[in-house]
Amino acid sequence: MTDALNEPLRLTDDVTLPNRIGKAAMSENLCGTDGAPNEALVGLYERWGRGGAGMLITGNVIVHRDGRTEPHNVVIENDVHLPALRRWAEAAQAHGSKLFMQINHAGRQTMRAVTWEPVAPSAVAVKRPGVFSVPRPLEEREIEDLIERYAFAASQAHAAGFAGAQIHGAHGYLVSQFLSPLTNLREDRWGGSLDNRMRFVLEIARAMRKATSPTFAITAKLNSADFQRGGFSPEDSVRVAQALEAEGLDLLEISGGSYEKPAMMGAARESTKKREAYFLEYAETMRETVKMPLMVTGGFRSRAGMLGARRTGAVDVVGIARPFAVDPDLAKKVLGGDDTPLEQGDTAVGVRLFDDLLNLWWYQEQMKRMSRGEEPEVGIGKFGMLARNLGDVTKNVLARRFS
Question: What domains does the chain contain, in order, with CATH numbers?
Answer without folding.
Answer: 9-347 (3.20.20.70)
